[in-house]
Design goal:
By secondary structure, the protein is α/β, with parallel strands linked by helices. The chain has one domain: 3-Layer(aba) Sandwich (UDP-N-acetylmuramoyl-L-alanine:D-glutamate ligase), CATH 3.40.1190.20. Helix content is about 40%, strand content about 20%. The strands form two sheets. Strands 5-1-8-9-10-11-12-13 form an eight-stranded mixed beta sheet. The chain is globular and about 50 Å long.
Amino acid sequence: MSELYDVAAIGNAIVDVIAPCTDDFLAQNSLTKGAMMLVDPDQSAAIYSRMAQAVEASGGSAANTIAGLASFGGRGAFMGKVADDQLGRVFAHDMRAIGARFENAPLSGGPATAVSMINVTPDGQRTMCTYLGASVEFTDDDVDQAVVEASKIVYLEGYLFDAEAARRAFAKAAALAHGSGRMIALTLSDSFVVERHRAALLGFIKGQVDLLFANEAELKALFETDRFDDALHQLRPHVKIAAVTRSEKGSVVIDHGQRLTIDPAPVEKVVDTTGAGDQYAAGFMFGLSRNRPLHQCGKLASLAAAEVISHYGPRPAVSLAELAASKGY
């Protein structure tokens, strides 16, 4: 089948509610700074009632990545589950408005569309309380075979490892992708995801993943070590390519065992780190899908990450294609 998409992503379809907060607010609400915790509908509503004035935006890690890919001028598709409710319709509209394919049927008679309450401290760190709602109802029946087989890269969101049905969907997508000679990419998503599902993630990485995205903390958690170089050494035999972000230290890319260091793109002021990893993945996969050398993929990734942390919200506020062109990328 001919290639129609640069990247097809599978992930949680979530609407983000983003507000500024203080460190005292996090302490008063027993929230772990910089982490993601799962909450039920009542907890979600309680946290929302105590938050400052907020901005609502369609989100979800993999969906944000597809938004970044589209901003670069890439062709993207997203697979995820929303409910047949107002937020679900908003999410679907937002995905299609950026030019991405999103055709999964909404869930009727079940949980509401997922919502993530994101509180951002003055240093730009985001702390997330997520009600997964309808997103965890995604199953292997929702994996579109034609889309997977027509995509250069199939990108899987680690957050979905919290749902057994979604793991079966991952397995189906991986089998279809590799059967068509496509690349499977996975993001670890969060250290807490790694802690909950370390064995399953390691097994999936070793057997199915061609391209792994992680940040330093997630990679250390995966291999249960405090030493970054040790974690990187343990990862090398298991994936063809890995991209590991290190905040202000930039990122490290592993290419068939060889190490490349990518400098961070400059940022005048860090406002909100929500979506930084998502946009890094967008820039990297856009470059990879267009056959750019890996060091250029890393530069595009760093540029996208720097753009998104300079404002509130998890998606680009300017055209990444124009921004990259202005930098000579």
